[in-house]
């Protein structure tokens, strides 16, 4: 019995024809980031979190749009997350929610 080659595995990946350009681009760019640890401050206490580089870019972009620091955003996410939810998970959900709301109201982006 032979194994499938990597090229055979690649050809098994199918994107539905009806999928939008935005969705297709998002899927095709899933695996292009690397994880980076950075220090942030939550209530003036330093902590380190590890996020994909694209998540860091999004966090910085949102802070710029909102006129605050990433530390301010992280503190707000930390304060409002459920106690049984991890901080990094809550931060990722915040980023997704922010862009979802923005996508529904395109005039929100400055």
Task: Describe the protein in words.
Strands 1-2 form a two-stranded antiparallel ribbon. The model is unreliable at 1-10 (pLDDT under 50). Helices cover 52% and strands 15% of the residues. By secondary structure, the protein is of the alpha+beta class. The longest helix has 18 residues, at 87-104.
What descriptive keywords fit this protein?
15% strand; 110 residues; Ribbon-helix-helix fold; 5 helices; alpha+beta; two-stranded antiparallel sheet
- Percent strand: 5-15%
Helix residue percentage: 40-55%
The CATH superfamily label of one domain reads protein bp1543
CATH class of one domain: Mainly Alpha
Number of helices: 5
Any low-confidence stretches, pLDDT <50, length ≥5?
1-10
Mean pLDDT: 85
- The end-to-end span amounts to 58 Å
Order of helices and strands: HHEEHHH
CATH topology (fold) name of one domain:
Ribbon-helix-helix fold
Shape: globular
CATH architecture designation of one domain: Orthogonal Bundle
Arrangement of strands in the largest sheet: 1-2
Derived from helix and strand composition plus strand pairing, the structural class reads alpha+beta
Sheet with the most strands, sense and barrel status: 2 strands, antiparallel
Radius of gyration: 18 Å
DSSP, total strands: 2
Write the layout of secondary structure elements.
Elements lengths: L5 H6 L9 H8 L6 E8 L2 E8 H14 L3 H11 L6 H18 L6
Antiparallel strand pairs: 1-2
């Amino acid at each position: 019995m032979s194994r499938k080659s990597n090229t055979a595995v690649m050809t098994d990946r199918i994107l539905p024809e009806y999928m939008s350009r935005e969705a297709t681009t998002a899927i095709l760019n899933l695996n292009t980031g690397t994880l980076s640890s950075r220090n942030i401050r939550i209530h003036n206490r330093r902590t380190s979190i590890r996020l994909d580089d694209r998540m860091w870019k999004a966090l910085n972009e949102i802070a710029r749009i909102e006129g605050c620091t990433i530390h301010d955003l992280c503190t707000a996410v930390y304060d409002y997350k459920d106690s049984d939810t991890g901080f990094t998970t809550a931060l990722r959900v915040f980023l997704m929610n922010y862009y979802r709301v923005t996508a529904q109201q395109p005039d929100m982006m400055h």
